[in-house]
Amino acid sequence: MDHESDQATRAVLEPRHPVGSPEGELPPGGDDPIMPGDHFIIDLDGTLLRGGVATEGGQAFLRGVEGRFVLVSNNSRDVSPSLSAKLRRVGLDIPAERMVLAGEETIGFVASRFPGARCLIAASPTLRHHARRQGLAPVTERADVVVLGRDTSWSYAKLMLLANEVCRGAVLIAANPDLTHPGNDGLIVPETGSLLAAVEAASGVGATHVIGKPAATLFVAALERLGSARHDTIVIGDNPLTDRAGARALGLRSLIVDADRLGGQPNLADLCDRLAPINSA
């Protein structure tokens, strides 16, 4: 890969952190209705799952929209088959072919844009293995591309390595911009966006691409998987800054849920009650 020819596209950028950042603004408007014949793009963390436990009404809701949904998640550690198996163990039956995951899509994007590239992948072993299967060459130095996911083995030494690789000229690509996702008992779980913020701050270079929500990539992939049109597809999620903002940007309807019904928002059990008369109509 010719680093010099790509200098213009790797100019120092303002870090982009729309999720959970002080600059993030809630998209205007409220919740949209579920309509007869709708297809569903459904979020995972905070919506169907929280802290490794299925949320109230999660599996019942999936049954109610069976054959008409795709899971779209900023998950940047798993691939679809492994995540499907994990979810089955907590009572959520979602086939791998009904998943669009940020980490998996990021590896696919890099493989198509930079085939055979030397990649320094700060992510899970699962994603590194997936990268090899996609023809990429995971390395520990002199990378063409730095790929960033939710790396639970993060360290100061790794930050130093990534920052210097980016300063040397490697392209920086992140799986998602999320700063955190919700864990058990109100705990926050640091996400890819927090690690991205550190790399951008240390290197002074912004990511050229951030693949996950609220960007369009995952939503467009979900629409293709569903075979649905935008007017008959609704996004169900817990985060207005990713789920609603991404939906609005593509002209999709959205509905925000909260597992604990905070702020008067419904949870998935409540949506099951709304689905019943629609499905029987």
From TrEMBL:
Signal sequence, renumbered to the chain: none
GO cellular component: cytoplasm
A Pfam family reported for this protein in Swiss-Prot or TrEMBL: Hydrolase_like
Biased composition (Basic and acidic residues): 1-17
GO molecular function: phosphatase activity
Composition skew (Low complexity), residue ranges: 20-35
Domain of life: Bacteria
InterPro entries per record: HAD-like_sf, HAD-SF_hydro_IIA, HAD_sf
Gene3D superfamilies: HAD superfamily/HAD-like (3.40.50.1000)
Region (Disordered) location: 1-35
NCBIfam families for the chain: HAD-SF-IIA
Official protein name in the record: Haloacid dehalogenase
Organism: Phenylobacterium hankyongense
